[in-house]
Design a protein that fits this description.
The complex is a heterodimer of chains A (189) and B (112). By secondary structure, chain A is an alpha+beta fold. Chain A has eight helices and ten strands. Helices cover 33% and strands 27% of the residues of chain A. Classes of the chains: A alpha+beta (189), B mainly alpha (112).
Chain lengths: 189, 112
């Protein structure tokens, strides 16, 4: 179950100290069973006490829109990029802004994507065909690329959106173990 | 008897937290202040209802139903206690939890 809080467009009341409110963790990933909804609130440089008090108010509002418990973390830009913040890669790469309704990384000018490179050379012909059907579809059935908005960049290389990582990996693993993932933050010139 | 135990543990954890704070061991400090806070929350519930919670779940339920301002403190600080094994706690956070503990001490009329 995917808890698309950012698509529910909850009307939130928050102060101008708030730079962004981001959903991250398993609740933004397709094909997972999250136990809670992880939220990061990024503040301007204000005291921790103030951050925590404001975050509690945001949490109460969000809880009304989520069936799962809200687990909230607060940061300012310094603590967000601090090496002790183990959650930063997940927030930066997979996080969805509840304010912009888009990837948080877009605010920093980056588009997050996953590149999956794979080799079919050791597969039997029938499995190569199955792999092709899985990605591109067959007759009236959509393949994963069309269903989840991915692209075939080159033979043996696809690009997908981060939240569908598990869906693609699970399907690819059924046919081959010869694949590699690369997580990419790209920017448009 | 329960009242005395909660008072004693609240004070003991608070003193130990202060010791750790002076040694700049903030993860231990946060855990100990939080334990002191929980003992005081249980004492507050005991003072008001004559009963004390048997678990974290029970504590959350009772405070959410009957003492929302206490629930807010508990709900705000609990994640830091949970994360104290895997996150670096700061001096500023330790001071926030200390202040919350002092708030509860005032409510329960306990001198720490």
């Amino acid at each position: 179950m995917i808890q698309k809080l950012w698509l529910k467009k909850p009307k939130l009341s928050y102060s101008k100290d708030v730079l962004d409110i981001i959903q991250f963790g398993s609740s933004v990933m397709e094909d997972t069973a999250p136990n809670d909804t992880d939220i990061a609130v990024i503040f301007q440089k204000i005291s921790l006490k103030n951050q925590l008090d404001q975050a509690q108010k945001i949490k109460k509002q969000l809880q009304k829109h989520s069936e799962l418990p809200i687990h909230i973390k607060t940061f300012d830009l310094y603590t967000f990029f601090n090496e002790a913040n183990f959650a930063k890669e997940g927030i930066l790469f997979y996080g969805k802004s509840l304010i912009s309704k888009d990837y948080f990384s877009k605010k920093l000018g980056f588009n997050p994507r996953i590149h999956i490179s794979y080799s079919l050379k050791n597969l039997e012909k029938k499995d190569k065909v199955r792999f092709h059907y899985m990605l591109k579809g067959r007759k009236k059935e959509y393949g994963l690329l069309k269903k989840y908005g991915g692209d075939l960049l080159n033979p043996g290389l696809i690009e997908i959106y981060p939240e569908y990582e598990n869906v693609f990996i699970k399907s690819i693993k059924k046919l081959t173990s010869e694949f590699k993932l690369k997580k990419i933050l790209s920017f448009e010139e | 008897m329960k009242k005395q135990i909660l008072e004693k543990t609240a004070k003991e954890y608070f003193d130990a937290a202060e010791d750790e704070f002076h040694k700049k061991r903030y993860n231990s400090t946060v855990v100990l202040f939080f334990k002191s806070l929980v003992a005081l929350i249980d004492l507050y519930i005991l003072q008001k209802t004559g009963k004390s919670p048997s678990s974290h779940t029970d504590r959350f339920r009772i405070t959410q139903d009957k003492f929302p301002e206490i629930y807010d403190l508990l709900d705000k600080d609990f994640p830091f206690y949970q994360d104290s094994y895997v996150q670096i706690m700061t001096k500023e956070l330790a001071e926030v939890i200390k202040n919350d503990t002092k708030t509860l001490a005032k409510k329960t009329k306990i001198e720490l």
